[in-house]
Every structure is written in C-alpha cells, then in structure tokens.
Amino acid sequence: MIKSMRISQLALYIRRCLLAVAPLALAGCDDQSAAGKEIFIEAVPMGTSQPFAPLSSGDRKPGSTPQTILLNFDDSSFFVTPTSSLLFRGDHLSYVREQGHLKPGSILVSNRTASWHGPLVILPTLEKGRAYAASVWIKLIETDEPAAVKLTWTQVADGTVTNLVLAELKADPRVWVKLEGEFIGNAQPHSVINTLSLDIEKVEVKYLVDDFMVAYAELSAELEAAAAAAKTRVADQIVNGGVEQGLDPWTHQGGVISRSSVFAHSGSYSLLIAGRTQEWNAPVMPVKGLENNKLYRFRLFARMNNGEPPVNVRLTMKRTTAGQTTFIPLGWGVASSSGWAEITGTFTSGNISDSEQVSVYLEAEHPTASYFVDSMTVEELTDG
C-alpha cells in the first residue's frame, strides 16, 4: 500500500496504474506493468494542498465559483479537472456516447467480478468539521431485476481504513436513480486518502454512471440546480426535446404517442409512437425562433420497439408560409431495436422568419412500425 506520498504525488503516480486489487488497497505499478492496459480517465487533483473549496456561500465574491467536483461525460470520455480524480477498480470502463442522465454521454461499468468494481473518486483535502454532500446518478441496463447499490466514503489514514455508507437503495432497472448523502470532513496529514466509490450487489449487472458531484453541503442544492439548468438548457427553438417534463409540446400526426420509461436515450423517459397506419404518422415537435440565413443542426435519437425489424426513418421539416405548406427533408437513418440511432441534418433559409408555423417530425417507412424518439435538439452552427 502506498501511504508515504502526498496526495498530489499519489495521484500523479496512480494515474498510470489500475486500481484492480482488494477493495481498499491502492496498488502501485510501474510503466511496464501498465503497458497495454486501458487507462480510462486521467483526472488528477493538482494543488491539493489547498482546501477542498476555498470559498463558502457567505464569503464568495459575486460571480465567483467555489471549487467542487462535478464529473460528467457530455462531450468526451477523457475528463480532466484540477480538483478531482476519477479512477476505477476492476477490468475497465467504457464511454457511452448515446446515453446520459440529462445529456448524452456517460460511462459504462461492465465485466465486473466483484460488487465493488467500478469508478473511484479521489477527493482533495477535506476541511475538518466541514459538512460535504456527495451525489451520483446511475442506471442499471440490460436487466429486468432491481439491485442494491451503495455510495461509500472511504478514508485511509495511518494504515486504518474507515468506511461510511452515504446512501443505499434498491435501484430499479432502465431508469436513472440518484444516490446522495452527506459526510463530515476530517483534516489529516497529506498522506491520508479520501475516496468515494460505488458498490452494486449483482456482479453480472451492467450500469451507467453520470453527474458525480461533491460540494459543501450548504452549496450542493444551489450548484446542482445550476448544473442541471446548464445541461438542460437548449436553444429557444424547442422545449422538452427529451420528454422529461411530460409530452407537451410534442404532438402527433396519426398514431398514438405516450411517455415511456422502457428505454431512454438520456434522462429517464422517451416518447413512444404506436398505432400507426401510414408512413407519415409520426411524433411532431413545434419549432420557434428560427432566424433568416442562420445555419441550424437538428438532431434526435430513434429506436424501434422490441420485436420490430430495422426500418428507414426520415426527419422532415414542415413549414407553412402565407398559407402554403412545404416539406423539407433534414436527415435520415436506420433505426433498430438493438440501440439508439442518431438522426441529424442541417437547415438554413433566407425567409424562415416569414413562416407562420414550423415543425419537425420523424416518420418510418414501415406504416405500422412503433418506435421511440428522444433527445431532440436544435443547435445554431457558427462559421468555422
């Protein structure tokens, strides 16, 4: 066990190593033993001689942001922050681009042989007597059975290991669930290691992890709300593209739409359309605020219902200008029941602001096919 190093030195050392030993042993390795291994993330707490968060709610300057740990995977599997270190124990982690808690992007934990295999967050120096809040979102996948899950704080000091279970619950499959709890910091010499980890009882269960946050307890609600607002904020052109707030303003042209928790590309729900009798029967999203001569990218994700064969799907814009309706193809793809397919396309027009109504819809070539739609976004593209 490595105990003599400062935390910053320890982090720099184990960034090249796999934590794949006993649940509470941080094992060292040399460059040769790590060769050929997958090192998933190198997020190392530099400058850990500073307190975990130097500013509290009462003494923050306007516009300042306290140090926190907020690990998400919206853009990439490679995540680096100066205040956090996410490592793992077990075989390896994978990056999942298509699924996430509030936005696409999460890490997949699989091929486990012990319940404690999974991500390990190494914390910076904790302030003595300070209350901290920790939270993480997980989603059990490829299973129909619930499983017991734990979020644990572990401290290793002078050869003594202390464990505290912050949260424990029975997680239902295929929906995002949150584990959260609080603990009190205990300042120790720099050789002390503080970690947070997950424990999932059934080793055969695969699960996704997203939005790992640690902050002062009195700031956690404020920071989590701000992070959620930033992640769910989309351009003014559409609202509720992921049906997390219900079905409104989604409508449909033929068929029947419902909000389903069976599959979700992001969040906990997706839109299901069934009862179709024509190819053009489809879920419809109204679009507002498009501006002339600006280039926009439309994107959504589709998945066929269980038992449905792969089907060609088309994303189409419907616009009505001076009483005349026109249809503009935006993008197409092939949706299957084995996973989510990304359907994307770009659009620009010199007179889109003249249109009284603009909407987009996703139709399937098979007239009776049922399918799921989720995570619709509109992004304005800039030059370069």
Describe the protein's architecture and organization.
This protein has 384 residues and is mainly beta. It folds into two domains: 7-55 and 63-232, Galactose-binding domain-like (Jelly Rolls, Sandwich); 251-381, Jelly Rolls (Sandwich). Helices cover 7% and strands 42% of the residues. It contains three helices and 21 strands. It has helices at residues 7-14, 31-34, 217-232, and strands at residues 69-71, 85-89, 93-96, 106-109, 118-122, 131-141, 147-157, 160-171, 176-184, 193-200, 206-216, 251-253, 256-260, 270-274, 282-286, 295-304, 311-321, 324-335, 341-347, 357-364, 371-381. Strands 1, 3, 4, 6, 9 and 11 form a six-stranded antiparallel sheet that branches. The chain has a five-stranded antiparallel sheet with strand order 2-5-10-7-8, with no helix packed on it. A five-stranded antiparallel sheet has the order 12-15-20-17-18, with no helix packed on it. The radius of gyration is 24 Å and the shape is elongated.
